[in-house]
Amino acid sequence: MTEFWLISAPGEKTCQQTWDKLMVATTRANNLSDNNKFNIPDLKVGTLDVLVGLSDELAKLDTFVESVVKKVAQYMADVLEDSRDKVQENLLANGVDLVTYITRFQWDMAKYPIKQSLKNISEIISKQAAQIDNDLKARASAYNNLKGNLQNLERKNAGSLLTRSLADIVKKEDFVLDSEYLITMLVVVPNRSFSLTLMCHLLSSRLLFEDHDSGLFSVTLFRKAIDDFKHKARENKFTVRDFQYNEEEMKADKEEMTRLSTDKKKQFGPLVRWLKVNFSEAFIAWIHIKALRVFVESVLRYGLPVNFQAMLLQPNKKNMKKLREVLSELYKHLDSSAAIIDATMDIPGLNLSQQEYYPYVYYKIDCNLLDFKV
């Protein structure tokens, strides 16, 4: 995925001139970035006090909604498990890939009516994101419990013969059942010791199952010889499994595994669909917050009447530093006292809230939403 710089600068005689100047400086001469106009409609400005307060609120909302977007994307990757290469194709906004959505951004008038105040629009987005976040927690918890229970059962049916469930290995005919004098026991014997001839009081022994470490034997002996047999087994480093043949219990375990597996498959489709829809909703909301922030910050910085051009730059990775220098040169007249202050610079007493400050309005949109590379 990729990183975008969403910037704005005041209109010259026209906003088109502002755009043309940027294009000349960043693309026509030196291919520093791919640029697109970023269309923000005529929003209601409100009072200066409201704008100042809203600027802080939108910064917090931006962070929150971005976290929701990332959580939904990451959970999509977790749910798709073996198909992680398919994650990206499911992370769409309005049915298109994220780069296309951002570069062709159009304000959604139906979701966020521009006749409403900026505060109302931000509250609509805030409620929407909180709802998605809460729903995700509930759905993830239910699915994770189901998945965890299934994995526990699967673990029981795999692994070492010393600990794994034996229900899918043994059969009723492997045991002498309901005998007053005889008993069948199950013994795990290391591969190198496949001989039970040293055992005393054995009436019969049979290999039931073998893995790369050991074999599982059924041994039938007199009940009165159990203690002596266990003692001899320990001496020979054989392990007697504590196992009672119970058909009902084994059947219940198998049915539980089938039920959990079926439930997981049933929930998988609707959950992926929900994640796709709500990822799209959250991402769209996030980009609308970026648009709101650009609008509010541009009005606060450049004043009224509203006259600025919002522009979306996709920096050429190798030339990011050069692009910053070119933008600084282009817009240094906007704020001569600021020049460039970078959040990486440690200036005592100056809290930039980890947000770079430049003479032009600037927000980063980072579309690297996942912890792994797909």
UniProtKB/TrEMBL annotation:
<dbReference type="GO" id="GO:0005765">
    <property type="term" value="C:lysosomal membrane"/>
</dbReference>
<dbReference type="GO" id="GO:0000221">
    <property type="term" value="C:vacuolar proton-transporting V-type ATPase, V1 domain"/>
</dbReference>
<dbReference type="InterPro" id="IPR036132">
    <property type="entry name" value="Vac_ATP_synth_c_sf"/>
</dbReference>
<comment type="subunit">
    <text>V-ATPase is a heteromultimeric enzyme made up of two complexes: the ATP-hydrolytic V1 complex and the proton translocation V0 complex. The V1 complex consists of three catalytic AB heterodimers that form a heterohexamer, three peripheral stalks each consisting of EG heterodimers, one central rotor including subunits D and F, and the regulatory subunits C and H. The proton translocation complex V0 consists of the proton transport subunit a, a ring of proteolipid subunits c9c'', rotary subunit d, subunits e and f, and two accessory subunits.</text>
</comment>
<dbReference type="Pfam" id="PF03223">
    <property type="entry name" value="V-ATPase_C"/>
</dbReference>
<protein>
    <recommendedName>
        <fullName>V-type proton ATPase subunit C</fullName>
    </recommendedName>
</protein>
<comment type="function">
    <text>Subunit of the V1 complex of vacuolar(H+)-ATPase (V-ATPase), a multisubunit enzyme composed of a peripheral complex (V1) that hydrolyzes ATP and a membrane integral complex (V0) that translocates protons. V-ATPase is responsible for acidifying and maintaining the pH of intracellular compartments and in some cell types, is targeted to the plasma membrane, where it is responsible for acidifying the extracellular environment. Subunit C is necessary for the assembly of the catalytic sector of the enzyme and is likely to have a specific function in its catalytic activity.</text>
</comment>
<dbReference type="GO" id="GO:0046961">
    <property type="term" value="F:proton-transporting ATPase activity, rotational mechanism"/>
</dbReference>
<keyword id="KW-0375">Hydrogen ion transport</keyword>
<keyword id="KW-0813">Transport</keyword>
<keyword id="KW-0406">Ion transport</keyword>
<comment type="similarity">
    <text>Belongs to the V-ATPase C subunit family.</text>
</comment>
<dbReference type="InterPro" id="IPR004907">
    <property type="entry name" value="ATPase_V1-cplx_csu"/>
</dbReference>
<keyword id="KW-0007">Acetylation</keyword>
